[in-house]
């Protein structure tokens, strides 16, 4: 599980047990000026997919931490990676580039994105990244088996 401690001072890595099995975690504190904008990243392995939950601001200062976690999971040979942006409060260009790079490096791994608010959905639409990856309105929809759209074999229904 990748996350941040409340005191913001500790750094560490390890493995913790949860009700769904082991989850990886990493705790870090960023530069003083970043403050509360530092994202929280939680990697949740599931039977049918690996979900990377992101919360907070995703911009040029915070993107490297998120990108490292996302690309590590993409390269782990999982069949499906779901990038859950439902708790992201700002999505900048660097955050958008993480999605593009993840899709480019995915190979046989299917990349799905959860964008449930205008904060995340609108930038994906304006940049047409929603045409590159499958975008869903909720985590439950993203974890459901893919349903082809008419005229787009193998593409999932987007919200």
UniProtKB/TrEMBL annotation:
InterPro entries: STAS_dom, STAS_dom_sf. It holds the Pfam family STAS. This is Stage II sporulation protein. It comes from Amycolatopsis methanolica 239. Residues 39-146 form the STAS domain. GO terms for molecular function: anti-sigma factor antagonist activity.
């Amino acid at each position: 599980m990748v996350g941040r401690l409340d005191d913001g001072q500790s750094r560490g890595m390890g493995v913790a047990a949860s009700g769904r099995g082991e989850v990886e975690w990493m705790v870090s504190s960023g530069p003083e000026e970043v403050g509360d904008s530092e994202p929280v990243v939680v990697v949740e392995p599931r039977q049918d997919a690996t979900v990377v939950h992101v919360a907070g601001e995703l911009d040029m200062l915070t993107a490297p931490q998120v990108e490292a976690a996302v690309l590590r999971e993409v390269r782990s040979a999982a069949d499906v990676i779901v990038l859950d942006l439902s708790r992201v409060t700002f999505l900048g260009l660097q955050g958008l580039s993480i999605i593009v790079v993840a899709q480019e490096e995915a190979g046989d791994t299917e990349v799905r994105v959860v964008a449930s608010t205008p904060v995340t959905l609108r930038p994906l639409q304006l940049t047409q990244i929603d045409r590159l990856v499958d975008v869903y309105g909720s985590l439950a929809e993203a974890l459901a088996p893919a349903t082809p759209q008419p005229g787009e074999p193998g593409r999932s229904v987007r919200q």
